[in-house]
């Protein structure tokens, strides 16, 4: 039996504060919730959902100024990533990504018997584009996958850098995972018809605050979409998710406001964490981010983990000495700051 790089579910019932999954801490307000429920009143529960998600694709296409023929909708951007890998990765096909990056790439590549090759970045997620390209030329990948902003580091590539990758590797498919695009603002959407090798994935699980619905999109040129649709499973997105997502997509102004608040809170948290770092330069480092999380590295990761668990806080830990903190509500972030201080030996109040 072949070995699969599994995805570990790290949730449990003892956790009070969840800042590990990069979800939005902004839930639907009462008005949005009522409107969402109203949008489902005509849902035919006895019928299978629209297999093509046509209305949802039309609504999202209007939002991003893209024809529905360039869009596939699915059960989260994970399904869209899985679809791309299933179509373009065969046994021993080479997939290139960076280290670190989203762990589900490894999972889907291993499921399809592909070979994943990783270009290692610097600690903050940055890297030399020339070295990245040289590495790619050596391994000749069928597919290159990059999350932008990067998960887990929050590092970004600008459009000019991605265009260079697209130009050099014209025979490879290039998947740009824009799950956290809204927090960054730069996108490759306008290039999908110019570059036949470009594929983009998006999600409503992050900035849009709809993680429970599992709605994602793939955007590419029409030829790629036609080819990928041949392999998409029917009825892949339930009708409730389609109907509610259509309703929420029509109110982007609220998402824009939420993103501004989350980014502001991210910068406040980062400023406070950097102040801790300045007093403990040899043992902890926090890195700047263009997403809704902050990446960190510490020799005291185990102590931090123990203190977090004691307070019922779940953050994302990796196999080395790094970890990632999703941006939470203001009071949650304040508690995280205090818990990290305590783990590093600061004097803190006993009510923590």
Automatic annotation (TrEMBL):
PROSITE patterns: AA_TRANSFER_CLASS_2. Transmembrane segments: none annotated. InterPro entries: Aminotrans_II_pyridoxalP_BS, Aminotransferase_I/II_large, PyrdxlP-dep_Trfase, PyrdxlP-dep_Trfase_major, PyrdxlP-dep_Trfase_small. CDD domains: AAT_like. Residues 33-328 form the Aminotransferase class I/classII large domain. Gene3D superfamilies: Aspartate Aminotransferase, domain 1 (3.90.1150.10), Type I PLP-dependent aspartate aminotransferase-like (Major domain) (3.40.640.10). The keyword Transferase applies. One of its GO terms (molecular function) is transaminase activity. The keyword Transferase applies. Keywords: Aminotransferase, Pyridoxal phosphate, Transferase. Its cofactor is pyridoxal 5'-phosphate. Pfam families: Aminotran_1_2. Belongs to the class-II pyridoxal-phosphate-dependent aminotransferase family. This is Putative histidinol-phosphate transaminase. It comes from Clostridium celatum DSM 1785. The lineage of its organism: Bacteria, Bacillati, Bacillota, Clostridia, Eubacteriales.
């Amino acid at each position: 039996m072949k070995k699969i790089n599994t995805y570990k579910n790290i949730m449990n019932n003892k956790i009070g504060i969840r800042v590990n999954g990069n979800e939005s801490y902004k839930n639907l307000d009462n008005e949005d919730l009522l409107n969402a429920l109203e949008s489902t009143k005509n849902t035919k529960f006895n019928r299978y959902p629209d297999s093509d998600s046509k209305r949802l694709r039309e609504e999202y296409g209007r939002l991003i100024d893209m024809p529905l023929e360039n869009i596939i909708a699915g059960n989260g951007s994970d399904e869209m990533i899985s679809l791309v890998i299933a179509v373009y990765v065969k046994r021993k096909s080479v997939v290139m990504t960076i280290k670190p990056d989203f762990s589900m790439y490894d999972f889907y590549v291993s499921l399809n018997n592909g070979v994943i090759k990783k270009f290692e970045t610097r600690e903050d997620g940055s890297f030399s584009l020339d070295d990245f390209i040289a590495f790619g030329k050596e391994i000749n990948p069928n597919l290159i996958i990059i999350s932008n902003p990067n998960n887990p580091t929050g590092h970004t590539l600008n459009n000019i850098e991605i265009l260079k990758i697209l130009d050099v590797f014209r025979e490879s498919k290039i998947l740009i995972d824009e799950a956290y695009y809204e927090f960054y603002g730069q996108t490759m959407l306008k290039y999908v018809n110019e570059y036949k090798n470009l594929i983009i994935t998006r999600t409503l699980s992050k900035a849009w605050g709809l993680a429970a619905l599992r709605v994602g999109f793939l955007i590419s040129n029409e030829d790629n979409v036609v080819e990928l649709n041949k392999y998409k499973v029917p009825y892949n997105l339930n009708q409730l998710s389609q109907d509610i997502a259509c309703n929420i997509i029509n109110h982007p102004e609220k998402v824009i406001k939420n993103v501004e608040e989350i980014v502001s809170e991210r910068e406040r948290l980062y400023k406070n964490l950097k102040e801790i770092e300045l007093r403990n330069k040899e043992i902890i480092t926090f890195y700047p981010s263009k997403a809704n999380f902050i990446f960190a590295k510490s020799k005291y990761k185990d102590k931090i983990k123990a203190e977090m668990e004691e307070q019922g806080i779940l953050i994302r830990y990796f196999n080395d000495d790094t970890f990632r903190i999703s941006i939470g509500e203001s009071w949650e972030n304040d508690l995280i700051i205090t818990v990290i201080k305590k783990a590093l030996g600061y004097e803190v109040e006993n009510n923590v």
